Amino acid sequence: MFKVSEVFFSPGSTTKKVVKEISSKFDGEKDCYDLLKEHNKIILQEFQEDELLIIGLPVFSGRIPQIVKVDLENLKGNNTLAIPVVVYGNRDYDDALLELKEILDKNGFKTITAGAFVAQHSIFPETAKNRPDSKDLEKINEFTTKTIEKIEDYTNNKENFKEITVPGNKPYREIQGVPLKPTSNKNCTECGTCATLCPTKAIDIENPKSTDGSKCITCTACIYACPEDAREFNKLMFVPASKLFAKKCSERKEPEFFY
Ligand SMILES: Cc1cc2nc3c(=O)[nH]c(=O)nc-3n(C[C@H](O)[C@H](O)[C@H](O)COP(=O)(O)O)c2cc1C
Asked: 186 C-alpha vs ligand 1 centroid, how far in Å?
């Protein structure tokens, strides 16, 4: 039996949901690395051959969120099996899965299967609203079943391991920052929840109503964590952008697996 480690960066919680759903089909002891809370805090972790890494990242601008690269550098495998998954908001995942797989390969992991799943868009929640839905969960479970079968095959015959390929291009897509930056509205009680969670320290803990737009990566953690619903985008910019985006990305995309 493999010892499972769940790793995710999930400001809007959908990536965490996908990782937890996959992980729930594995028995035994589990570790969990929440890269939003543990960003810049992870010290070198070595994983062995009898361990399994389930790692999920959201897609930001067709790439993995660049801030977690420093954390991923501290996860080292020794021929450790890994299941990389990316979660995206129904536009596209472009080069994100390839980027994640290549980091894992370089760090001593073996990608056994990989997946790209769709979830409600964290900036534009009218797009892919309420996903992952029951149809997505079925697909996630199908993916996990196939992964478990493949792990069993691998365990019985390690020499037969074949490298999988995932979609993506090199050089990776150029990252375009999101000009929308959330700020506090009148509901803000200055409780500091957002400032504590913000992975780039863009919110001043002494004055949480102030956001440093140059540090903010629009990850949306503050919006989803705020107990008062006090973090939002400027409506004048947000409303038309949201409508345009929903129209452009209205066609339902389905999960994809690679094994
Ligand atoms: C800064 C940023 C950039 C994003 N870029 C993309 C993208 O390129 N393609 C896409 O389909 N979704 C994109 N999304 C949507 C997220 O990938 C999607 O909502 C994901 O489910 C968020 O995961 P989380 O809920 O774990 O934070 C982006 C979201 C953010 C915050």
From this structure: 27
pLDDT given at position 166: 98
Atom of ligand 1 nearest to the CA of 121: 19
Q: Mind listing the domains of the chain with CATH numbers?
A: 3-171+252-258 (3.40.50.360), 183-232 (3.30.70.20)
Tell me: the pLDDT tens digits for 204-242? 999 999 899 999 999 999 999 999 999 999 999 999 999
Q: Is the shortest distance between the CB of 59 and ligand 1 below 6 Å?
A: yes
Ligand 1 centroid to 119 CA: how many Å?
Answer: 8
Q: Hey, whose CA ends up nearest to atom 12 of ligand 1?
A: 89
Task: Give the rounded percent of residues in the chain with a pLDDT score beyond 70.
Answer: 100
How far apart CA 146 and CA 259 sit, in angstroms, is: 8
Q: Is the CB of 178 under 6 A from ligand 1?
A: yes
